[in-house]
Amino acid sequence: MAVPVEEAIAALSTFSLEDEQAEIQGPGIWVSTDSGATDSPVEYSDVSAYRLSLSEDTKALNQLNALIQEGKEMGSVLYTYRSCVKALPQLPDSMKQSQADLYLETYQVLDLEMSRLREIQRWQASAAAKLAADMQRFSRPERRINGPTVTHLWSMLKLLDTLVQLDHLKNAKASIPNDFSWYKRTFTQVSVQWHDTDSMREELDDLQIFLSTRWAILLNLHVEMFRVNNVEDILQVLIVFAVESLELDFALLFPERHILLRVLPILVVLATSSEKDSESLYKRVKINRLINIFKNDPVIPAFPDLHLSPAAIMKELSIYFQKFSTQTRLLSLPSPHELPSREAQDYQRHYLIINHIGSIRAEHDDFAIRFSSSMNQLLLLKSTDSADIDWCKEVKGNIYDMVVEGFQLLSRWTARIWEQCAWKFSRPCKDIVPSESQEASASFSDYEKVVRYNYSAEERKALVELVSYIKSIGSMMQCSDTLVADALWETIHAEVQDFVQNTLATMLRTTFRKKKDLSRILSDMRTLSADWMANTSKSESGSLQQGGEESKANFFYPRPVAPTAAQVHCLQFLIYELVSGGNLRKPGGLFGNSGSEIPVNDLKQLETFFYKLSFFLHILDYSVTVATLTDLGFLWFREFYLESSRVIQFPIECSLPWMLVDYVLESHNAGILESVLMPFDIYNDSAQQALVSLKQRFLYDEIEAEVDHCFDIFVSKLCDSIFTYYKSWAASELLDTSFLFALDNGEKYSVEPMRFTALLKMTRVKLLGRMIDLRSLIAERMNKVFRDNIEFLFDRFESQDLCAIVELENLLDILKHAHGLLSRDLSIDSFSLMLNEMQENISLVSYCSRLASQIWSEMQNDFLPNFILCNTTQRFIRSSKVPLVPIQKPSVPYAKPNFYCGTQDLNAAHQSFARLHSGFFGMPHIFSIVRLLGSRSLPWLIRALLDHISNKIATLEPMITGLQEALPKSIGLLPFDGGVTGCMRLVKEQLNWGTKSQLKAEVLRGIKEIGSVLYWLGLLDIVLRETDTTHFMQTAPWLGLLPGADGQILHSQDGGESPIVNLFKSATSVIVSNPGCPNPTSFHTLSKQAEAADLLYKANMNTGSVLEYALAFTSAALDKYCSKWSAVPKTGFIDITTSKDFYRIYSGLQIWYLEDSVRVPPSSHEVLGDSVAWGGCTIIYLLGQQLHFELLDFSYQVLNVAEVEIASITQTHKSPHFFQGWDGLLEVMKKARRLNNHVFSMLKARCPLEDKTACAIKQSGAPLHRIKFENTVSAFETLPQKEA
Amino acid sequence: MARAGGITNAVNVGIAVQADWENREFISHISLNVRRLFDFLVQFEATTKSKLASLNEKLDVLERKLELLEVQVGTASANPSLFARDA
């Protein structure tokens, strides 16, 4: 060959066409859609070349085939016929005058539809006439022409089938007579003005009779056939042929099998209805054989949602065919709806896939393995240069066997689905258990009864499984089409040649030696198909095959060419001719004939070859056969039920493909999850059918609309379950494992593994000729759902109080973990990006994230006024009293469980953890805040809090002035002689603020808030210290920091580089010095980056204290009021009686509220808590009045007096219960003194007044250590402004 | 004619059949290879599509990152004073 085609094509295979995507969809692309060899592509025009005098037969055959084609189109017109009457408009009363116009319009519209029916009527008449004529011509006993050939017999059967189907459809479609009566009515209205309508009227009457008569087509055919009385023979031949084919069931694929099953009862009816006695039929075919066939298949699929029942048909026809009504045995067969329940049970067992799925699964697995292994063998063979001929033959033969087996499997499986459907249609669900209560009252349409409620969950599962088996085997076979083609041709060639060259040669030599006419047929067979020269042509071209064994007569070289359809046709004809002797009346069957002149052995060989021949055609038609066998489009069609239910279309819940998809999604079954795309192939198939075989655009549009809708729902449901799965996986991983282990019911918190990986890799989902990138759709949705979830968590936090921060952190952690798990399989936006986006924290110049501002506003509005501090537990708790400041909060938003932790159980588990932290605010909450805000927003929050302190001080100032003014001119020390009672009286007399109790409470609240903020910052300080220390411990060894003797930090090498830099530098130099290093610059970059890391981490080493900073800030803020609150005594000595300093005011306030807290039941302590002491004492301390306070505080004085009093009293009276009434107060005072002392000692430690040093906090959040600064508020400008 | 069969000119038919086998060998060889070519193209398209899809995915991610960076740069350049101080 001039062009090295082989090599060029082989070179293509060197391209790497690897693909990430798993094969979890059916084959979506057909290389060719026109049929190949099953029907001859050249309409058997090449048959004449073989000079077998078959021209008459060929002509008749082609005529029948053309009729079949037309009939199929008629059938699809009829099947897809939808009533027009429902769409016709009604005229309102106001327009009655134009009624005539409406009639005309209606007439014209309906006329178009009726013309189609008229066409069908005409066609069936001519088809019946032609079929009858054909049968009569080829069954004349004198036989002037050759035929009928086997192909011809098949065409007769097929045409008969088409006619029967058409008739059945015409009977079933109720809308057609309905439309027709409308048409007739309008015709009578319209035709008044026309002349000469008689012929039209006649035609109309004709059509009416045709449409309203049941089985009109069949009756007409019967009349045509028996016009001349000699078709019984050919009918009997057809029956024998059908029965034998069905009984052997080897070469039949399911479409042919169904044709035979549909035609057989009609044939029997026709054959027994003739004038002659029908017993001759039963001489050739025992009635039991017929009954067996009818019994085996009580329902036969005809159209997607229409089935036939032989028993019912025969019963119905017996009314029309008098003779046939005597066939009581056939008529006693029960129709499917009248089956006795036990038999129905048996059939049920047979028809339901669920009862066979186990063995189907085993077959599938076994076949898939063997098919791939033989494919591997073939590939190995192709890559071997000089292969052994025997091995070659074995491998190719093996491929052939596998393909045959595959076709048979596919045919069996698809037939099962068809038959299950037909069975389900014949037995609608009787007792519907409505799953949703709202539907309980609604009545169910017939379609819902036969489909929606007729498939149990298990049956749906089995169906999904079977569909995916069919589709996956189908796509596997489809993919290997061009790979196996030449191997198949070669094997078929070898089979044929072996038969004609060897088997026939043997037969000619032995059995047929004496029989001249028979041996002529045999030698004709050899002539028309033998390839004698295959041998020489190969060895001359000198290609792969080596070594000639020419001496061996029965050896021939393989040639990868298959016989043509015409050759097969002729061979089948000759074999049939040989066994039947060309005599239609020959008794008995085709092959199982004892009276023949041919020995049994030879007959057996001929029979095998005969049936093999018919299967060859399917194999040669590889891709079309695979497409036919895997076509499941019928599962969608429901034209018949649409009509009977009088609706335009059913909701998708009734659509079987969607039911399957939905089942897979809802069942959460990991085993069938990957098959979820398979049911979409049903839509692909049905769309193909709608366009190619039914040729109806509107059906395609409906399918397309449904697919669009379903796919949207599918994607959203799939994303939902992916999200739920990853979320619950994350949530269960974040639960404490040792705790779960100890738990009795710990398993319910574990998540069953699911594999979404294959689905997540689908970048090309084939849907109605479109390619859909499922992966990107999922990624898009995931990006959105993660954002929604973050948003929801913040919304939820915003509707709760500050204590929910721990729960928020927990939920965000789960989300983040889920994100991490999902990002392994899917590329989605990074979590920090999404979090920043949802926190509105993207701007480089803004530091207030959504969360920070929420925390701040929560503190301002709820936390500071309504929470009180307990110094001992270091917790803030909500005051038990009615909140002083009522707060408006949005209600908690609702969300599905997957926005929390995934499943209900996990939600409960995590919620019980969160509940532990919901009642108070303490260290864990501060930890959460630190982690959530990070170094970016935390300074902003600190700044806001500090501003709050200075604002509070500013608002307190006028109030305190008011209190100062209300103080008496001078207050002396409390005298000891009056005892506690006297003291208290004196205090009350002197501090006559009675009118200003509102003011007092206000001031106390202000001081309490300042104290709360300071204590809060103290807690923050502790937490930050801990985080910083952890951080330091982690980085120190890398930065070369060593502990010194005096607790200072030492650098390991003075002036040298830190270990991290050294490590990377030396590693880089070693790697780069190696000449084999592929990319030295990247290692240099690495070492540079180490230096950068070193710098960054070193800069963050100096940590300061937030608390000290805050105290310094407060002190600076107080400096402004120093003159008013801390007057320098004019005398230079301590001012005891006339002082109006802050400590004096606070002293008065303290004793007032202490007394209050003892007297009034809802004690003011519960309103104020311990933070008042923190606020008051801090201000006093920072004003430098601590000693004054300790010396001159009223309550301290009272305590002193009490102490003296106790001492004196115990000496004299020895009565411990002396202070009736003052016990409580004294106790409270003691407590207050202890608390104050605690605060003062802490302050002394953290903020020594001697040198007013503090630390500042850098923008990055890292405190600068011990920096001297001028003590003004402006010195604190390093913190980000609140407004920023 | 009681029996079918009987090729009228058996020798000629035999020769024609032989020639037919050989011609058809050539034809099926060519047509098979054309189909293989077609198969290759289909597969090539599929692979290319999935490679493009993964490229598209990466571009998507980059695009969003770029968008973020642009916004950040935008906020920064709108407030130059904040950054001038550090310089």
* Share of helix of chain B, binned: over 70%
Helix content of chain A: 55-70%
Structural class of chain B: mainly alpha
Order of helices and strands of chain B: HH
Given the structure, what is the number of helices of chain B?
A: 2
Protein structure class of chain A: mainly alpha
Sketch the major β-sheet of chain A. Answer: 3 strands, antiparallel
| Fraction of residues in β-strands of chain B | under 5%
* Overall pLDDT confidence of chain B: 81
What about the largest sheet of chain B? none
Instruction: Kindly estimate the percentage of residues of chain A that lie in beta strands according to DSSP.
Output: under 5%
How would you describe the overall organization of this protein?
The complex is a heterodimer of chains A (1284) and B (87). With 1284 residues, chain A is mainly alpha-helical. Chain A has six domains: 53-152 and 167-228, no CATH class; 231-340, no CATH class; 480-516 and 556-620, no CATH class; 696-921, no CATH class; 938-1032 and 1105-1276, no CATH class; 1034-1099, no CATH class. Chain A has 48 helices and eleven strands. By secondary structure, chain B is mainly α. Chain B has one domain (11-77). Chain B is built from two helices and no strands. Chain B has helices at 10-78, 80-84. The longest helix of chain B has 69 residues, at 10-78. The radius of gyration of chain B is 36 Å and the shape is rod-shaped. Chains A and B meet through helix 1, helix 19, helix 20, helix 22 and helix 31 of A and helix 1 of B.
Secondary structure layout plus pairing:
The complex is a heterodimer of chains A (1284) and B (87).
Chain A: H1 5-12, H2 55-79, H3 99-138, H4 150-172, H5 175-190, H6 198-212, H7 216-225, H8 232-248, H9 254-272, H10 279-284, H11 287-296, E1 300-303, E2 306-308, H12 310-320, H13 328-331, H14 341-351, H15 357-383, H16 389-426, H17 446-452, H18 457-479, H19 481-509, H20 516-529, H21 534-541, H22 565-580, H23 600-620, H24 622-629, H25 639-645, H26 656-667, H27 678-693, H28 697-733, H29 737-742, H30 757-760, E3 765-767, E4 770-772, H31 774-798, H32 805-823, H33 831-838, H34 850-866, E5 867-870, E6 875-878, H35 904-915, E7 920-921, H36 923-966, H37 979-990, H38 997-1039, E8 1041-1043, E9 1049-1051, H39 1059-1073, H40 1080-1099, H41 1106-1119, H42 1122-1125, H43 1142-1159, H44 1164-1168, H45 1171-1182, H46 1186-1192, H47 1194-1212, H48 1223-1246, E10 1254-1257, E11 1263-1267
Antiparallel strand pairs in A: 1-2, 3-4, 5-6, 6-7, 8-9, 10-11
Chain B: H1 10-78, H2 80-84
